[in-house]
Amino acid sequence: MLRRFGFWVIWVGLAANFAAAERPASLSGYVRDSQGVPQMGVTVEVLSTAALQFKALTDEKGFFRLANLVPGTYSIMASAPSFMPTLREHIGLREGSAAVVNLTLNTLFQALQLGPARTPADDDDWKWTLRSVASRPVLRALPDGTVVVTSAENSGDHDVKASLSLLAGTASDGYGSASDMMTGFALEHPISSDDLWSIVGNVGYGVAPAAIVRTSFTHHAANGSDPTLALTVRSLAPPSVGFQTSGLQAIGLTTTDSFAIGDVLELHFGSELQTVQFMGRVSSFRPFGTADLHLDPDTVFEYAYASSRPPSRTEDGESAMATHLGETGPRISIASFSPALEHAHHQEISLSHRMGKTNVQFAMFSDRVTNTVLTGVGEVGGGNGELLPDIYSGTFSYRGDDFDTTGLRVVLQRKLRSDLTATLDYGYGGVLDLAHPDVQLKEARQSLTASQRHAVAGRLSGRIPRSKTQWSTSYGWTSGRALTSVDMFNSSAGQSDPYLNAYFRQPLPSLGFLPVKMEAMIDLRNLLAQGYVPVMGQDGQTVYLVQSARSVRGGVAFTF
Q1: Residue 325: in which H helix or E strand, if any?
Q2: Range 2-112: architecture per CATH
Q3: Model pLDDT, residue 150
Q4: Which residues contact 305 (CB under 8 A, 6 or more apart)?
Q5: Cα distance between residue 55 and residue 69, in whole Å
Q6: Residue 84: how many CA atoms within 13 Å on its side-chain side?
Q7: Which one of 46, 176, 227, 446 has the minimum C-beta count within 10 Å?
Q8: Mean pLDDT for the chain overall
């Protein structure tokens, strides 16, 4: 009887083990070097005693597969001659799951870099996938056609990234523009797999330098949300040497968050509380947000609200972060020695659809702007209490009139080749214009009027494969005289500066013994100096009010 009971115990144990092994998990992926070249013959090892198969070798495509893994948490390591070993930890496997984890091998010199070498990304991603997808499961297809789920938490890089740029020239956006000589920097440091700390800034040179620094902390929550807390400190130079006031100082506290409800609805929202010290203290509260409804994989319906103008579109990538700090700063003007911040309320609904290589967007918007800040060009004396000169660029800020407008936008974008994208943007809406040209500057505010205008902008952007030159050129046309853009809150793929603009970014040969990536860049705006509306300054000299002032800005960027 005891022997029979022992046999039953053995059979039950074997049956339990067999049932547990009915749905084993698997782990697969590709191994490449830092340039994206597949690596054959790499040893991929599972660092867990629970694995039934401990090692695998990659094939000619760099692909590996580890099967028959019991559910649990694993770490895997890839190693090959001439490369540093790569370790990926905390990979969770459920029963019957098939996880995909891609690995990158670096040489000794590449491993010393603060940031990984970057490869060209796909151009103009638009809104065809959820922006928060980086913290949520992603569908992947294996070579045999099997669809599996992998998590960016397990497949992403968690390296420190840093960049440094030395720039000359000004953006010519009126008071608050960046210094004519500037050092920009950006540093991202992952505290853990879920937390990221970053600091971005630019520091100018000269008699009265300007400086902007922004530090932020982001937490990637398990539910897909990405709450971010950021603190921005600005110290801008006095408007001119003879201006009877100190420079502008501002502190801004920004909170943002985003999360998705299933694969259908995505919400992104936040606000900035800003305090400005300039001829007194001025405070503002600037909320913003978007709600994206994904009607199908190729169609997105969006509602957007904004209370400040977006920065100008560039092809800079990460190094543009420091430059954009100045463009998103407080837009301030004075009248009768009284300072005021520009306040805006922008609402927009849009429908975007993708058809193969073509993206189409149709949008309708409503704008209400108070204390509108206009940009002027010309030498003016400070201290008259009506305008703010910029000591770096020869431009100035002038307080315009309040105005309301409604309008529409149509954007057509097509990828002509893998390295060439064309974009066409049409807009119709209201602008500020002078009812009578050649008026006195002090009387220009009373002559401002709202007018309806058509605007068409075309842009070509791409990359030259052999030289790896990244370039973009655009031209924006307006149907009549205008001091503001027809669609000043445009943040779509069709956004571009008015008139003729060009941007170039060229990788430079780097020294082999230094783990630094070097690039030269140049940004040219309104090359033909179009759209200048003449007005008479107080000293009898002619100055101009413009949508966009001509500017040349360039320098060298280093990525570590």
Answers
A1: helix 320-327
A2: Sandwich (2.60)
A3: 45
A4: 287, 288, 289, 290, 345, 346, 347, 348
A5: 12
A6: 12
A7: 446
A8: 79
Instruction: Note the pLDDT tens digit of each residue in 182-232.
Output: 888 888 888 877 788 999 888 887 666 778 889 999 988 777 788 999 999
Residue 134 φ then ψ, to 5°: -65, -25
Q: Which of 304, 313, 298, 305 is nearest to 352 (CA)?
A: 298
Spell out the long-range contacts of 58-64 with Cβ–Cβ below 8 A and sequence spacing 24 or more: 58/30, 58/31, 61/30, 61/143, 62/30, 62/31, 62/32, 62/38, 63/28, 63/29, 63/30, 63/38, 63/143, 64/28, 64/29, 64/30, 64/31
* Residue 274 contacts residue 283 (beta carbons within 8 Å): yes
Q: Would you give the distance in Å from CA 297 to the centre of its chain?
A: 23
- Determine whether 14 is exposed, middle or buried from the number of CB atoms within 10 Å of its CB (0-12, 13-18, 19+): exposed
| CA pair distance 252, 340, nearest whole angstrom | 16
Which residue from 529, 556, 419 is spatially nearest to 120, judged by alpha carbons? 419
Contacts of 212 (CB under 8 A, 6+ apart): 201, 202, 232, 233, 234, 235, 322, 325, 326, 329
Residues forming beta bridges with residue 283, ordered by sequence position? 275
- Which regions of the chain carry the CATH code 2.60.40.1120? 2-112
CB neighbour list of residue 344: distance below 8 Å, 6 or more residues apart: 306, 307, 308, 309, 367, 368, 369, 370, 489
CATH class of 161-559: mainly beta
Count of H-run helices and E-run strands, the chain: 5, 35
- Between the ranges 317-326, 335-344, 512-521, where is the mean pLDDT highest? 335-344
pLDDT at residue 292 greater than cutoff 90: yes
**pLDDT tens digits for range 17-39:** 444 445 788 889 999 987 788 99
CATH 2.40.160 positions along the chain are 161-559
Beta bridge partners of 350: 302, 363
- Give residue 13's pLDDT band: very low, low, confident or very high (50, 70, 90): low
* Cβ-based neighbour number of residue 393 at 10 Å: 22
- Number of neighbours of residue 7 by Cβ within 10 angstroms: 9
Distance CA 284, CA 465 (A): 46
- Cβ partners under 8 Å of residue 11, min gap 6: none
Say which residue, 141 or 357, is predicted with more confidence.
357
Looking at residue 108, its pLDDT comes to 55
Q: What is the pLDDT of residue 442?
A: 78
Which amino acid, one-letter code, is at 214? R
Q: Are strands 249-261 and 265-277 parallel, antiparallel or unpaired?
A: antiparallel
Residue 98, pLDDT > 90, answer no
Instruction: Say whether pLDDT at 145 is over 50.
Output: no
Q: Which is nearest to 171 in space by CA: 133, 193, 138, 202?
A: 202
Tell me the pLDDT band of 446, cut-offs 50, 70 and 90.
Answer: confident
Alpha-carbon distance of 154 to 134, in angstroms, equals 10
Looking at 134-288, list the stretches that DSSP marks H as alpha helix, in order from N- to C-terminal side: 152-155
